[in-house]
Amino acid sequence: MRQIFLDTVTTGLSPESGDRIIEIGCVEMVNRRLSGENKHFYLNPERANHEDAVKVHGLTDEFLADKPLFAAIADELIEYLDGAEIIIHNASFDVGFLNEELRRLDRGPFPRYAARITDSLTMAREMFPGKSNSLDALCRRLEVDNSNRSLHGALLDAGLLAEVYIRMTRGQDSLAIDAIEAQGPSALLAEAIDLSAFTLPVLLATDEERSAHDALLVDLDKASGGKTLWRSLMA
Hints:
Blueprint: E1 2-10, E2 21-30, E3 33-34, E4 39-42, H1 51-57, H2 61-64, H3 70-81, E5 85-88, H4 91-104, E6 116-119, H5 120-127, H6 135-141, H7 154-169, H8 175-183, H9 207-223, H10 230-234
Parallel strand pairs: 1-5, 5-6
Antiparallel strand pairs: 1-2, 2-3, 2-4
């Protein structure tokens, strides 16, 4: 399974108003292993950056002046992405800009060139309802080191997103899972441990802990709009 984590940096927020892509970063993962076969482009947008945007990404008009146009890298990008699942945080934003760049070249819309587009922001909102699910917030929550992220960079953010996605889809954060992933499929063939030899203590929740748990369930139920399952199971 081939997956590409993609991020863009732009001159502003509105492709309909003429804002353009100035940076594209792509990180490849094959069978849940980062391959190192990544793509990174700086682009000349043929227009000035918004001042507020420069404060976010730090890419000045002078720096971008001698960079290639999107038209010059379009074929290389499409060939690289062809047939992969593309994972983007807040996909509608990046896809909107990519669609507009492709439209200028009389090419088909961006989803045509991907096997599938997955929005990791939608995934995060389903996993963590009612919480902040920005890339920075997810890095903090899932213990992904983003200490080098002082400015918004496409390749850096695509790499962080790959780490966040791996942790969101791993099923659990445990040393056992880490060990299995590090050792490969053969680790699954190890001899099973006889757990009957162990006596495990049972720690009961206190009244205070049960009350706090009930309050948390109520908050989650409200945040998800009543879509939680425990109410129906309890009924």
